[in-house]
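ligand=DP6
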Amino acid sequence: MAEIYRASTTAPVNIAVIKYWGKRDPKLNLPTNSSLSVTLSQSDLRTHTTASCSPSYPSSDSLLLNGSPQDVSGARTQACFRELRSLRKQLEDADSSLPKLSTFPLKIVSENNFPTAAGLASSAAGFAALVRAIANLYELPSSPTELSRIARQGSGSACRSLFGGYVRWEQGSTVDGSDSVAFQVAPAEHWPGMRAVILVVSAAKKGVSSTTGMQTTVATSSLFTARANETVPRRMKEMQDAIKNKDFETFGKTTMMDSNSFHATCLDTYPPIFYLNDVSRAAIKVVEQINKRAGKIIAAYTFDAGPNAVVYYEEQNEKEVAGLFKAMLGENEGWKGVRGDGVQANGESLEEV
Ligand code: DP6
């Protein structure tokens, strides 16, 4: 029987505190601004992926997500497969004793430990895990930053899920996107008290996909130009300094202002895009009250392309922030406590079964 080669990995979800919104090249997912995110704990939100390949597999590549077959013919998945195969081929060309894995069909099996449709950045963890699992399978010597160039082509935000802690995605300036990659700004241990809670307002799939929303924003919003060219570059610097100094007040204020700026840009898009709903706005008010009562910023909300809130806070304020939200909504009404952590890899060596 022909051998089966296999490797597994997990990748976490990341939530941006300076958002990616706008593509200068939609095919390569090259962004119009740099962005910065915090990687969440894998015990709460992560994708586990096993990549295998074998000459005995049926001729086409396949992907199973939470037990359902997925279409792999899309340009984004194809770009990831193609790039990874070409890196493997370079190794095979340099060492003829290596098995020709680049020529075998791939079978990818992925499981999320959270609802895929809940709008919780599932594509970020999904593509990061897919790229990392295949890179492990192919025994590529590539660094996470090199792999981030490939994961970005699957989904822009996925390039940041190759790292734990605090991660910057550099917008880059080249046409081929070789410098549009992610770097770790600081590991999770740098600021071990950082915490986040997620308020799942709705488990429904997003109304307007990020890709479509971004394209319409770039084409129609005048606020967008100021955001991409002036506001974000300034805030990227402020945010990195805040992280370096573990300055929660600046971190929190900048996080909330960037979320507001992103959603204002969505409203300024024509036709307008609404991601926040009444419950989202109620969550903003609660955070404002928490901060007012504390006399300083101890909680910071942020919203992606959907109504669910992510609220960052520090461990010492657990009671005032997460405790209050949990007491208001009850432990079982869609709340999850999460914190920063790193990508864990396992099964990195090739197995023959
Ligand atoms: C609002 O990475 O999902 O979450 O590149 O089209 O796959 P594509 O978009 P995606 O967009 C994420 C947008 C965001 C902000 C962010 O994560 O930075």
